Amino acid sequence: MLSHETIWHALDALAERHKLTPSGLARRAGLDPTAFNKSKRHGPDGRLRWPSTESIAKVLEATGASVEQFLSYIPSSRSGLPEGSFPSQTGTIPLLRFAQASAGGFFDEGGFPAGQGWDVVEFPASPARKAGVYALEVQGDSMMPLYRDGDVLIVEPGAQVRRGDRVVVKTRDGEVMTKILMRQTARAIELHSLNPEHPQRNLELADVEWVAHIIWASQ
């Protein structure tokens, strides 16, 4: 079962396999040494922070581990861990195709799901219970090489975002885009594209309706 706890458990197990601390594993992967610290796994408000797919890819490259090896570290219900440590049930969250996201009526002014026309997708119960979490299905190749057609992005509106986070941004003109947050000030926001063929974007905050954090990608 993929959940916030099991993914972090797998990263810890991979670090231990290579005789590294979580900080050492992050450093070897070229990440911020504090990226995998236990204190970074929840936000100040208690919200879950998930390791990005990009971070996991860098870890696998740095350690030489395969995806299958990484998944083997994810505990099952018979792993000997305390009962209830890893939720076995799933919940459902709203699902929207990315091409529909720019149409009106699907989000409220805070970026939370609203209106009709949403489908649903199953997701581990812990994040699924969080208010407002939803999924966007990628369509086309504009987000390659990180996200491909058919990938599902799990999005948490209202979550704290910081430099380097992958985010979904909606402008007041109705444009919806997936970018990397590089810098945000009281007046402007700087966004880098996932696809190197697409330009960077610098927007005035007055032109931005909302920014939501991508917490996971199902690939």
UniProtKB/TrEMBL annotation:
UniProt-recorded name of the protein: Phage repressor protein C with HTH and peptisase S24 domain
Annotated region (Disordered), positions in chain: 26-47
CDD domains given in the database record: S24_LexA-like
Domain Peptidase S24/S26A/S26B/S26C per the UniProt entry, residue ranges: 121-214
The keyword Transport appears for this protein: no
Record's keyword terms, sorted: DNA-binding, Transcription, Transcription regulation
Gene3D superfamilies tied to this protein: Umud Fragment, subunit A
Top-level lineage group: Bacteria
InterPro entries, per the entry: Lambda_DNA-bd_dom_sf, LexA-like, LexA/Signal_pep-like_sf, Peptidase_S24_S26A/B/C
Database matches in Pfam families: Peptidase_S24
Organism: Pseudorhizobium tarimense
Transmembrane segments: none
Keyword DNA-binding: yes
